[in-house]
Amino acid sequence: MMQSIRTSALLATALWGVACTSPVEEPGSTLPGRCQADAPLISAQKTDLLFVIDNSGSMAEEQAAIASELPAFLEELQRGSGVEQDFRVGVITTSVYLRAFYDNREQLTDFPDQAGRLRPVPDERERPTAERYLDESDPDLLAKFRRLVKVGTSGSGQETPFEAARLAVTPPLSTTPVGEGGNGGFLRDGARLLVVVVSDEEDCSSTERPPPVLLTEDTSRDLCSEQSDRLTPVREYVRIFRNLDDGRGSAREVLWATIGPVGLTDKEVGTVLDRTPQGTFVRNVDCPTSYGPGFRQKEMASQFDTGLKNLDSICRPSFRETLVSIATLARTSQSIEVVNLPDARLAQVRVTREDGTVQTCSVAGGDLTYEPSAEGRAARLYFQSSCPRQPTDQKLEVKLLCAN
Predict the structure, then answer these.
(1) Distance from C-alpha of 392 to C-alpha of 388, rounded to nearest angstrom
(2) How far is CA 347 from CA 8, 344, 365, 372, 381, in A?
């Protein structure tokens, strides 16, 4: 009740002020002269999901574990909480290059058929097709998605998920049509981008060619971590991703999630040596199936969520809860596109919470901020801390108050 009174009072002040003339008649006013019958419509939330999956020799079990839990992931992703979801999924690998000293000589291997290129969707017999991404409306989405994430284990042992993702979503790949070998068409105008990295090793990404870090056959050392100062800084990759154009002249909203080499208990990062009959291997602390500590992986995740809800350990026996959490992140945006909204001061957003209570939020009350529509772009309402969207919300409605 107090919220309604406060909203009404602020709205009245905003609309009428101290003057006796109608705000409808003020110069530049967008207020309608009469009440509208049609309520504003909430546009479907568009999210493009890019999975970056490690395809080195140690990842067979992890890929199978991801594939087995995709039903729960998709089920959670399709829960709208009052907003229709419109998503698509593409998969790339962590393979871009491999610079190594083997057999007493330096070798540099490029992976031009991967290196950020969307993986072809395999058919039922595992043969590549012309499809490069999947839309949520595909009736065979689950079966195709399961085949798509099993990217094999013949890729580079120098994992570069950050560089692979950069190549995937920036020119020339992002602007070259799929039919010509690029990723053009995957990123949609106005869509959010969620990058999901799945790897059991540290990121070794660099924008330089040849890459600056040289690997050896010594499994007791993690040279990517030891020489991280030679790699492209994580903050530079963050800058690139946060400055992606959304196709409508604004910065694209980018989310990031990682299933990587961090501790099972508290997502700790640190180096331990595991001495086995097969040799000595570098692991991350509290993550016995990893192959190196995830310093850069954790830093990247923290740049997108300081609470690290977007980070989990690759050493979990099951990824069900992890994938459900990532899907929740994908479907719960703190902004919505609206059409048929003549003036933000007239809008009330009613959010039905998990327990059935309804919170009424408004621009006039300070619970929302408003970005007006522009050419090719719908208007958008942003939820503030006094009225945040929650993953458990049951319903979302936009109502229009009458100005006269």
Answers:
(1) 11
(2) 11, 5, 11, 13, 10
C-beta of residue 284 within 8 angstroms of C-beta of residue 262: yes
Q: What is the per-residue pLDDT for 18? A: 45
Kindly calculate the radius of gyration of the chain based on its CA atoms and give it in whole angstroms: 24
Amino acid at 336: I
Amino acid at 300: M
- On the question of pLDDT at 404 being above 60, the answer is no
The answer to whether residues 59 and 314 touch, using CB atoms and an 8 Å cutoff, is no
pLDDT > 50? residue 3: no
pLDDT band at 329 (very low <50, low <70, confident <90, very high): confident
- Nearest Cα to Cα of residue 88 among 133, 52, 145, 29: 133
Cα 11 from Cα 7, distance rounded (Å): 6
State residue 34's pLDDT score.
52
* Domains with residue ranges and CATH for the chain: 47-331 (3.40.50.410), 334-400 (no CATH)
Q: How far apart are CA 108 and CA 211, in angstroms?
A: 9
Mean pLDDT of the region 90-96: 98
Return d(Cα 224, Cα 391) in angstroms, integer.
37
> In a 10 Å sphere around its CB, with 0-12 CB exposed, 13-18 middle and 19+ buried, how is residue 230 labelled?
middle
pLDDT score of 392: 80
Q: Band of the pLDDT at 39, cuts 50, 70, 90? A: low
Bridge partner list, 215: 100
Give me the sign of the Cα torsion angle 321, 262, 295, 163. negative
Which of the four pLDDT bands, split at 50, 70 and 90, describes residue 372? confident
Q: Would you state the structure tokens that stand for residue 146, as one six-digit string?
A: 């399961």
Residue 138, burial from CB neighbour count under 10 angstroms (0-12, 13-18, 19+): middle
Give yes or no for residue 292 having a pLDDT over 80: yes
